[in-house]
Amino acid sequence: MIEVKNLRKSFGKLEILKGIDLNIHKGEVVVVIGPSGSGKSTFLRCLNLLEQPTGGEISFEGQSITAKRHDINVTREKMGMVFQQFNLFPHKSVLQNIMLAPLKVKKQQAAEAEKFAMELLRTVGLEDKRNAYPAQLSGGQKQRIAIARALAMQPHVMLFDEPTSALDPEMVGEVLEVMKQLAVNGMTMVIVTHEMGFAREVGDRILFMDGGVIVEQGTPAEVFGKPKHARTRDFLSKVL
Ligand code: ADP
Ligand code: MG
Asked: Coiled-coil regions in this chain (predicted)?
């Protein structure tokens, strides 16, 4: 579904991504772990061109999205993204937040958009919050709404950048549970997280990034159980 070849990204003279090669298959759950500053967010943001790569190539569903003539807006509709900060529209209700992009971008009919939004609210367990405003929600609820909002565009892949890092500990579980259900239902996902238990349980593949490269990758059993590289072992010894 996604092919990344020799992806590079520099900010000024500083090279942050130093040649990343990766194929992500349909239905696969790829979890990216690694120390702060290793380039995880930059990598995720390059996948949907929130950051413009300075080298290499990215293809999505067989089309080069880094080619000059590619219309990235069409591709972005198929890539949902969830950030650490929830970025909900504060002056819109939960339902309006979820319906906005389907109405504006997909030109859906209001009735159709609302029906799907309600379905998504059921999926994330927040039907009763349909008329609430973001300020009335807990952090965990806001993040579940942010996930529902991304799903409203019926993306083919979901990108998560530390979706639980800004949450109080007691709210982490409810968000991870929603993500786990998505994974079980076959969603293709790329997830940056420090939740190692979740990574182990839900990830099909773990990527360990450090210094702008993928140092090591494998199944959770391989990476967590028998890490090959000293840098991976060192990182895991600090977080496990
Ligand atoms: P991670 O998500 O693994 O913590 P990031 O991808 O956020 O790492 O950042 C990797 C490096 O790139 C950091 O040193 C960061 O300061 C730098 N960086 C990220 N975004 C920018 C930017 N827009 N301009 C300059 N440097 C940046
Ligand atoms: Mg980051």
From this structure: none
